[in-house]
Structure prediction request, 532 residues.
Amino acid sequence: MTRTMWANRDLLDRLLIAADGEHVGMVDDLELSDGPAPEITALLSGPTALGPRVGGRLGSWWLAVGRRLRPADDPYPNRVPFAQVTTINHRGIAVAVESAEVPTRRLRGWVHDKVIDRIPGSG
Amino acid sequence: MTRLMQLTLGIVTAIGGFVDIGNLVTSGIAGARFGMSLTWAIVLGTIGMTVFAEMAGRVSAVAGRAVFHAVRERLGVRTALINMVSSTVLNLLTLAAELGGVSLVLQLATGVNYLIWVPIVGLFCWLVVWRLPFSLLENVFGLLGLALIVFVVALFRLHPDWHGLWHGASHPSVAAGEGIPTYFFYAVSVFGACLVPYQVQFFSSGGREEHWNEKSIPDMRMNAIIGFPLGGLLSIAIMAVAVPVLQPLHVDVAHLGQVTLPVAQAAGVAGLAFVLLGFFAATFAAAAECTLATGYLISQYFGWSWGKSHRPAQAPRFHLVCIACVIAATGFILTTVDPITVTLVSVVLGAAAVPLTYFPVLMVANDRDYMGRHVNRAFSNTLGSVFLLLMLITSVATLPLLFITKAGL
Prediction:
């Protein structure tokens, strides 16, 4: 059965759910392939994808913060290849990747290591 | 646990969860200044809260989504961002009011200045969020909050002029010496105290924490439809006891202690002990719920893992937000700003911001893609739309009223 999907309604701003059920971010933007018939190649997530979509001064500020958070590597947003999407329904977009392998969780790792893990009783 | 007990527990916690510092302060002030003439605002606020809590609970159970996930999906990235930021600011103000309220109760109980208690209360609030299992938070404080029933007992022991009370409630009029803007300012504050947005945010995310599904709908519905109106009745009782005791003396309620006076008069030290216990439980639970609600909504906007069913290490950003909220609100109250004023401002601004949370709930509850056969029926939609209209009118009127009356002076 084919169903018409709308990027705006069915993909953007949907929750990304990893194979182990963890919430791993939102679909902040989409990556399209070059060429005469563009196809969706990946779902993008993270501040460097969200910033431009928020737009205006706040958006560029957001983007700048996102860049500072990952100075060492390329500020290109985290991507989840579209081929790894398993289901799209009202609960969100399920992907066939374990949460630990989704590259959207830099801030999470930092907060965990620097703050939460140092407080007694976090584990 | 038997089903009946579970149901009773749910209803009881809904009663405790409904009443918080906003209801205590606004009902007390309104009773002392305006008699029963603002009862209609509590009734309207309670019906609104019940209708929308039922909807949010249904969305949570059927679609498996808490309110703020839906907010971003439905309103888009920018509107949802504005919504998220204003809801957070409002929740922080509410949290500050609740923390101040708990500290004031401790001052009443011990005589030690409330400012000493503020950091301790903040710390305990965070500890509850950090470690206490979700069901304990709801059940323990919900049950203790029931001590507030002493207001109903006190009302009977005061032998008030029942006919006069009923007449005041059924024939609302502006009390002599009060301006019409002031009357409506307090109407908005009483209405807003019943509808504070964090309660709906907490109710819907709490449903996820407790893994509600379609089978939970009847229980959830009973909790909302019986529990919240009983909470509203409790607010009316707090208002009513002030009428025979405080109104004749023209007491201008500016301290939490004054709200307890009628009970002390009617039921003595034992009554007072119950009031303080009830106040403590209601405000402390509200502080913890408000902290969690803020953590929930920010995490849901960004798609972070959230909730108390995760250990803190598995939801680090959610817990960081909670810590930051408690620190900010504690710091704000420590500036010696009057907690009662903070409460009034928070419920009034809350009344203005109510549509931000309630409109998306109505939208999603009407979406067949999410809700399937549990989509809103005509009854919920009619009530929901009427209330949303009422909330929008309130929202527009709030700021002018706030400035004209200088926050109800």
The radius of gyration of chain B is 20 Å. The longest helix of chain B spans residues 256-302.
